[in-house]
């Protein structure tokens, strides 16, 4: 089962990073380490260019904290 979030156009760079991760994601029981690693690479400039106290910066940092545990 795949995440269907990739069927809606992305609205910004964070949403696009999520789009590619959704498209790559193979399901919760599958090996998604390569998807998660690629996601972290896409998140890196978003984290660097958005302060922690902005919505985008907070969401990007939360995603890094979560997905860095699964690479």
Total strands: the figure is 0
* Nearest-integer average pLDDT: 91
Largest sheet: none
Strand content of the residues, in percent? under 5%
> So what's the oligomer here?
single chain
First CA to last CA: what distance?
A: 20 Å
Number of helices: 3
Query: What letter string, H or E per element, gives the SSE order?
Result: HHH
Helical proportion, percent range: 55-70%
Radius of gyration: 12 Å
Using the alpha-carbon principal axes, give the shape. Answer: globular
Number of separate domains: 1
By secondary-structure content and strand pairing, the structural class works out as mainly alpha
Uncertain regions spanning at least 5 consecutive residues:
none
Notes on the structure:
By secondary structure, the chain is mainly α. It has one domain (18-70). Helices cover 59% and strands 0% of the residues. Helix 1 (13-24) runs antiparallel to helix 2 (33-49) and helix 2 (33-49) runs antiparallel to helix 3. The mean pLDDT is 91.
């Amino acid at each position: 089962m795949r995440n269907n979030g990739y069927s809606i156009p992305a609205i910004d760079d964070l949403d696009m990073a999520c789009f590619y991760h959704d498209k790559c994601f193979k399901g919760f029981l599958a090996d998604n380490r390569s998807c998660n690693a690629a996601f972290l690479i896409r998140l890196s400039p978003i984290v660097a260019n958005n302060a922690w106290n902005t919505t985008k910066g907070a969401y990007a940092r939360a995603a890094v904290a979560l997905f860095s545990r699964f690479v």
